[in-house]
Structures are given as structure tokens and as C-alpha cells.
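Here is one chain, start to finish.
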Amino acid sequence: MSRFLVALLWLPAVAWAHDLWVERAPDGFVVQYGHRGGEGLPIDAAKVKAIRCGDGKGVPRDVLAAAAFAAKEVRFPGPCAVTSVFLDGGYWSLTPDGDVNLPRTKVASVVRSWSSRQYAKWVDARSPASAAVLGDELEIVPVTDLAKAREGDKIAVRVLAAGQPVPNAVVAVGHRPLGETDSKGELRLRLHSPGVESISTSVRRAKATPEAETEVLEASLTFEVAR
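Its structure:
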């Protein structure tokens, strides 16, 4: 069995269950949760811990205070060359009756438990800042110049954890796993969207605590494909 298949088998049930992503909107940017292209799911405002906006010339500023929360979306103003949103999903436990958003210490008959943190990133493909490393706990960084990449082209991306390459991270587009990163944390993939492309990755790692035995980090990278 290949390492890629083994990685898929070891991913928790929540991997790619619901994405968090950012897109450009007429009045700035919009953050949504669920399956892109489908109906959005509610976003708990208390779980959104940071929204950063950068112009490529300095440290991105936190614009969380300027964000407007609705039931199924979060909007914040621009302009931004790169954005990053952090949502702390808290603790989850899998029980015989399904998933509950509680630590294992507060649930009976736990099959497995984990903590969940998600990071959503949007970059302006035409800006040099698109390749900037923000230092998120988990992030996807384009290696290829996105300004020249069009539908059908192959690009390379790098998965980083706090700025360090993550080998063997499974990368997906549209909830379809495409492969895992190499020793440099990189993977080549083909662009299939003529408009907005959203790439995601999920990393599971052991971190035994009374509340959960593992942690799941998820990240997305969204950008507009050149026409």
C-alpha cells in the first residue's frame, strides 16, 4: 500500500468535512464555511480568533474588529494583497451517535477525540505578496508565479507549519485528495477552475491531553485564476 493511501486511511473523520475559505467580494472579502459551491454553514463568531490583511509591504494587520458577522458568513474590508483567517474549532469527540463539539472529558463512550484549528488564506495572484509566508500554524504557499498560471496549467504549492515544510501532508482540491507533499513540503497539481481555485490540506498529529488524544490542523489557499 502506498504512503498516500496510508495517509488517507489515517486522516480523521473530520478531514475536509467542511472547509473554511476566503474570497474577494465587491465590498472587500467574505469568509465562508462548508463546501464551496454549495450552501454555506453557520459560522460561530466566538471561534473566529483573527482576521489578517496584508499589503505585501509589512506585517499584516488584524482587522477582526472591523469584520461584520452574519449567520453564515463574515465580511471584512480591503484592500488586501493577502488575507488570513483563523478559526479555533475547539475539541471534538466521536461517539457511537456521531460527532460532538466537546472534549472527551465531557462525553461518555468516546471512540476518539481531537482538537480542531482551521486557517483560511486568500492571495492576490497578481501581487508579489502572494508568495509571502505569514507564519500561520498551518498554511499553503504558492511556489509557482500564480499571475502566469491559467486553467489547465500545473502549479507547485508548499505546505508549512509555523514556517517549516510539512512532508507527507495530503493536499486536496474540491474535497478530492490529489497527493501528498514531498520532503520539502511541496506538491505539483493542475488548476481545474476557470475562475476561483481553492486548495486545502489537513494534518493530523498526536498530542495527548485529558481533552483529546490528537489535533487536526486544516488550511486552505484561495486565489483567482488568470484568464
